[in-house]
């Protein structure tokens, strides 16, 4: 069935596609869940829908209400689309070191953007949004880093879809941001696919993003529970970019930079399985397509130049 | 066995401004004890009095977060590189 009542009804049910050319051995298979197929082009459409539904159910959101959210882009864009349809206003607090397209898309969907300083990355955005929320108690902060509806979107949607399409799943790899994808899918798979490995691919940004004034400004999302994970792998800008280009040239998949990090981690799991002579079905979460990153030169510049350009940015 | 350790900006006051230092140890815990003998106070910024990693500090051996491979007991091998980073909010 490819007919829907409206655009929001197309959320979820994303395709899972094989990456046979990247497989290091015959029994080791890589699979990509293409979340770019969601209405505003990222996994965050699932999350925005659930968080807004929950806020409406809890009586927090009324017509004309203003939503406030710290975001490096995707969540803001997804919330903005629903907000526009439902008559809410969105104020997105976003680090100034994010890609041009994200700002343009937020603007196109009618959101107001408040920039937070580049140093400190998303930390600074979260801090600024909290300060603004304290001054405007009538605004509704969905707070994706702490909102259980965020993880529930994945426990109820992404996880079951993945298992239905790949019952033989041995590994699940996703990027670590709010941590909700890994928490939600991870918990669902642990309950339904014994022995599955849940692996986080964490972006390792340039120094600027870690520019806190003191360690107590550090931040661990309230949703995060390390017991859900088996491993947490850190992937630098250059490796993420190299893999983003590799999956484009080898498989024809045009993905965002967080997927480069996820793929880098997934390929090291694939090589480990191949070396040990084990079969593996490794599912990779592709959070978005590459469209929003074109202006960064990620797909066109000389690799070293593109790495330099991305180094101070919150690229995932 | 010499291990290269990358120090984040926020901890460089403890390493006389050095970005990259070297230390010795069979485990992450031993490495921090060794580093503390030359960079006084570094260990206390990373390891709590209870002997766990500080909540807002992440330590990696190559690309692996040490919390998942034994924490302070995580084993080091020759040629490993250790990175310390503050825990910051991720994207999205």
Automatic annotation (TrEMBL), chain A:
<dbReference type="GO" id="GO:0006535">
    <property type="term" value="P:cysteine biosynthetic process from serine"/>
</dbReference>
<feature type="binding site">
    <location>
        <position position="258"/>
    </location>
    <ligand>
        <name>pyridoxal 5'-phosphate</name>
    </ligand>
</feature>
<keyword id="KW-0663">Pyridoxal phosphate</keyword>
<dbReference type="InterPro" id="IPR001926">
    <property type="entry name" value="TrpB-like_PALP"/>
</dbReference>
<dbReference type="InterPro" id="IPR036052">
    <property type="entry name" value="TrpB-like_PALP_sf"/>
</dbReference>
<comment type="similarity">
    <text>Belongs to the cysteine synthase/cystathionine beta-synthase family.</text>
</comment>
<feature type="domain" description="Tryptophan synthase beta chain-like PALP">
    <location>
        <begin position="8"/>
        <end position="287"/>
    </location>
</feature>
<feature type="modified residue" description="N6-(pyridoxal phosphate)lysine">
    <location>
        <position position="44"/>
    </location>
</feature>
<comment type="pathway">
    <text>Amino-acid biosynthesis.</text>
</comment>
<keyword id="KW-0808">Transferase</keyword>
<dbReference type="InterPro" id="IPR050214">
    <property type="entry name" value="Cys_Synth/Cystath_Beta-Synth"/>
</dbReference>
<comment type="subunit">
    <text>Homodimer.</text>
</comment>
<protein>
    <recommendedName>
        <fullName>O-phosphoserine sulfhydrylase</fullName>
        <ecNumber>2.5.1.113</ecNumber>
    </recommendedName>
</protein>
<keyword id="KW-0028">Amino-acid biosynthesis</keyword>
<dbReference type="InterPro" id="IPR005856">
    <property type="entry name" value="Cys_synth"/>
</dbReference>
<keyword id="KW-0198">Cysteine biosynthesis</keyword>
<dbReference type="InterPro" id="IPR001216">
    <property type="entry name" value="P-phosphate_BS"/>
</dbReference>
<feature type="binding site">
    <location>
        <begin position="177"/>
        <end position="181"/>
    </location>
    <ligand>
        <name>pyridoxal 5'-phosphate</name>
    </ligand>
</feature>
<dbReference type="Pfam" id="PF00291">
    <property type="entry name" value="PALP"/>
</dbReference>
<feature type="binding site">
    <location>
        <position position="74"/>
    </location>
    <ligand>
        <name>pyridoxal 5'-phosphate</name>
    </ligand>
</feature>
<dbReference type="GO" id="GO:0004124">
    <property type="term" value="F:cysteine synthase activity"/>
</dbReference>
From TrEMBL, chain B:
<dbReference type="InterPro" id="IPR052045">
    <property type="entry name" value="Sulfur_Carrier/Prot_Modifier"/>
</dbReference>
<dbReference type="InterPro" id="IPR010038">
    <property type="entry name" value="MoaD_arc-typ"/>
</dbReference>
<dbReference type="InterPro" id="IPR003749">
    <property type="entry name" value="ThiS/MoaD-like"/>
</dbReference>
<dbReference type="InterPro" id="IPR016155">
    <property type="entry name" value="Mopterin_synth/thiamin_S_b"/>
</dbReference>
<dbReference type="InterPro" id="IPR012675">
    <property type="entry name" value="Beta-grasp_dom_sf"/>
</dbReference>
<dbReference type="Pfam" id="PF02597">
    <property type="entry name" value="ThiS"/>
</dbReference>
<protein>
    <submittedName>
        <fullName>Molybdopterin synthase subunit MoaD</fullName>
    </submittedName>
</protein>
């Amino acid at each position: 069935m490819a007919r829907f009542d409206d655009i929001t009804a197309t959320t979820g049910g994303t395709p899972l596609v094989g990456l046979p050319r990247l497989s290091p051995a015959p029994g080791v298979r890589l699979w990509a869940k293409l979340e770019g197929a969601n209405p505003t082009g990222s996994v965050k459409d699932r999350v925005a829908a659930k968080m807004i539904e929950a806020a409406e159910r809890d009586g927090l959101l009324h017509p004309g209400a203003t939503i406030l959210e710290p975001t490096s882009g995707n969540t803001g864009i997804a919330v903005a689309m629903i907000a526009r349809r439902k008559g809410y206003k969105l104020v997105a607090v976003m680090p100034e070191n994010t890609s041009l397209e994200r700002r343009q898309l937020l603007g196109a969907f009618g959101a107001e953007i408040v920039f937070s300083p580049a140093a400190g990355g998303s930390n600074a955005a979260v801090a600024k949004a909290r300060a603004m929320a304290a001054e405007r108690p009538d605004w509704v902060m969905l707070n994706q880093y702490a909102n259980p509806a965020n993880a529930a979107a994945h426990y109820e949607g992404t996880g079951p879809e993945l298992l239905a399409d790949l019952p033989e799943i041995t590994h699940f790899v996703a990027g670590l941001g709010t941590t909700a994808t890994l928490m939600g899918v991870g918990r669902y798979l642990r309950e339904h696919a014994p022995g599955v490995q849940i692996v986080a691919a964490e972006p390792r940004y340039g120094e600027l993003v870690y520019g806190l004034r003191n360690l107590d400004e550090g931040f661990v999302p309230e949703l995060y529970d390390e017991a859900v994970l088996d491993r947490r792998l850190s992937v630098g800008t250059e490796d993420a970019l190299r893999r983003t280009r590799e999956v484009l040239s080898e498989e024809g998949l045009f993905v965002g930079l967080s997927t480069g990090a996820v793929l880098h981690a997934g390929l090291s799991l694939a090589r480990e399985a191949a070396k040990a002579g084990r079969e593996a079905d490794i599912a990779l979460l592709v959070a978005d397509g590459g469209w929003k990153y074109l202006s960064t030169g990620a797909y066109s510049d000389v690799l070293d130049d593109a790495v330099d350009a991305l180094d101070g940015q919150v690229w995932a | 066995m010499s291990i290269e350790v990358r120090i984040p900006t926020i901890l460089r006051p403890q390493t006389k401004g050095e970005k990259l230092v070297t230390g010795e140890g069979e485990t992450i815990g031993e490495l921090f004890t060794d580093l503390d003998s030359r960079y006084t106070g570094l260990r206390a910024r990373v390891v709590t009095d209870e002997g766990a990693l500080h909540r807002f500090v992440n330590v990696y051996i190559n690309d692996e977060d040490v919390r998942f491979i034994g924490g302070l007991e995580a084993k080091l091998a020759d040629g490993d590189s250790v990175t310390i980073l503050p825990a910051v909010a991720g994207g999205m």
